Amino acid sequence: MDSIVVQGGTPLRGQIPIAGAKNACLTLMPATLLSDEPLTLTNAPRLSDIGTMKLLLESLGAEVSALSDGKVLAMSSHGLTSTRADYDIVRKMRASNLVLGPLLAREHQAIVSLPGGCAIGARPMDIHIDALTAMGAEIDLRDGYLHAVARGGLKGARIALRFASVGATENTLMAATLAKGTTIIDNAAREPEIVDLARCLRAMGAQIEGEGTPSIIIQGVDRLHGATHAVVTDRIELGTYMLAPVIAGGEVECLGGRLDLVAAFAERLHAAGIEVTETAKGLKVRRNGERPRAVDVITEPFPGFPTDLQAQMMAMLCTAEGASVLEERIFENRFMHAPELGRMGARIDVQGGVARVTGVDRLRGAPVMATDLRASVSLILAGLAAEGETIVNRVYHLDRGYEQVEQKLSAVGARINRVKGI
Ligand code: EPZ
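Above: the input entities. Below: the structure tokens describing the complete assembly.
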């Protein structure tokens, strides 16, 4: 298994290009199942999770070609051969469950392995199941698989989600595009990835209003046609690299960055005394001299502070002046990075979903273990500020959601490299 080695203490200077969003691409790819005409995605990120979704779609009979060095995905599902998403693929990536809605809508049946829990939480699918059942699907769990049928097709319905779940909103939105009649999703998730999905579906001929608000209205149509869609910028990769100069010092411009995608996060940086400016090419972040100030953070659904930036923010707050309180409200077990940061000399006291972080003058390098995607990059960020060498093990987690981390960071002056198979 690869590891990443970071020598800390070097201020960063330069530009980092931000890729297309993993979490948008993972819901845009299953949208190809809704039409027998080609769907092409541009600005696609090159990540192992995208490779896994490609395998899943191919296992259903879709064709997926990665062109232009993987940045363009040309997809077609004119001849589906299966409606079964196998455990062997689903267990590798939970987002595989986003084929459920499109398959039910187009083929009126689907067998999808239940993903099970993961490092950050139990992550059930009850909200997805309730929403699709309200649209007339019959879904039952057998041998670890959801067996779903929609006799005569799905029907429009008014659905109030128990929680503004991103995945449940995406599955229901895709399913509703081909349902008979009107669907209204209340308490819908408002994440930019959902806005991007709605835009792509509209380009395919869907009738959708209200994406980005708590209530989405979808008028079902008989069929969808082909389209080409550019994947939105990855706001989590953006936030991650905005934190790099905050934790290591210096000035970095994130190319393609947009303030509207990270407003709640940028507001916390501002409160910590960090300068964030919009440029013609993106967002520039600068920290010269003074340590950031401690700030409190609560994770919430968009437009609140994103849970996917919580670990990275914790790494930064470990070096801040004063004590911060971080509350994780989305996932029940998302502080696995705290004890690893503790190995680097951080002072973190975790009580349930609340972590109290007392900033220290200097972190110290150490061998640490990545436990999940965002935890792994938070350890790399901490390594940028630490005295000496940090070795982050199990970085396969990282490759799921960050393309070319060591190249992007060393391009702005970081001393970082990947070591094969330690
Ligand atoms: C998406 O996961 C993202 N993944 C996650 O990013 C992100 O953390 C999450 O949204 C929240 O922003 C992708 O888009 C592929 P949810 P998702 O349904 O859709 C509970 C990353 O690091 N819930 O909004 O699975 C659930 O357990 C990943 O890139 C139910 O109880 O998130 C969780 O506590 C990690 N029942 C909360 O809701 C359900 O049926 C939010 O989950 C569905 C969800």
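Note for the figure: The chain has a mean pLDDT of 97.
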